Amino acid sequence: MSHTLVVFHAHPDDEALLTSGTMAKAAAAGHRVVLVVATDGDLGLAASSYRSDGRQLGGVRMRELQESARALGVARTVHLGYADSGSGPLLYDDPPGATRFARADVEEAAGRLADILREEHADVLLTYDAAGGYGHRDHVQVHHVGARAAEMAHTARVLQATVPRDLLVLGIRLVSRLHRFPADFDIASYERAYSPRSAITHRIRVHRQIAAKRASMRAHASQATADDGDRTLGLFLRVPRPLYDLVFGWEWYVDPARRGGLGQVSHDIFEGLPR
Prior knowledge:
Structural class: alpha/beta
Number of strands: 9
CATH superfamily: LmbE-like
Order of helices and strands: EHHEHEHEHEHHEHEEHHE
Distance between the termini: 6 Å
Largest sheet: 7 strands, mixed
CATH topology: Rossmann fold
CATH architecture: 3-Layer(aba) Sandwich
Number of domains: 1
CATH class: Alpha Beta
């Protein structure tokens, strides 16, 4: 029996880094995969060429999202309609006709997502851990909104996409030996990000989905470069395949309904659900 997986992210390209392998694996197994983004990512960093002809970056990124979704086998994509909150210290005023996601009312936003969960009869919802991964304000909001929406819709399982921070830092250090990161890249911030290994409840092997995962990353071309050189996504795509497969061949989740630990990690996000 197939299940329905709803994946909730803050911006286009977030799915490529944290959950694309899991999404592709579920789709290949015959499950329905629905990708929901809170914002169009219009305040994301990108090379000036992506704005030079008057295009809105958000429109570019939503088209990139569709390309990523096709590569992963996603059945449906949805934009909740909120505006990107940006990553700098200043939270800009709301644009005309929209609300910055970081200041959106959690109950209202959760209601929008819960409507999708009910419509899709979702069995599993993927969101972010309590830290919002590396702490982006929109990612933290995804955590809160996703948790509340699952309560409203009585979704059977919520899994919080994350990375064991010790493995993340190791991977970054390996990549840094091959390629120089941007000057403002702060590796110390990743030493406090995501989740400790002891919290992990699900570790999903996605080595067979590596081609789909790379295609998902490549789809987000606007997020691979900046005027001063490659961004992190671009650097990851330049990593040689053996090392890339090692670093990106697993995806990790925390189930807040149970405790993790190396002796009790699941390898199937649908394990134990009614069939």
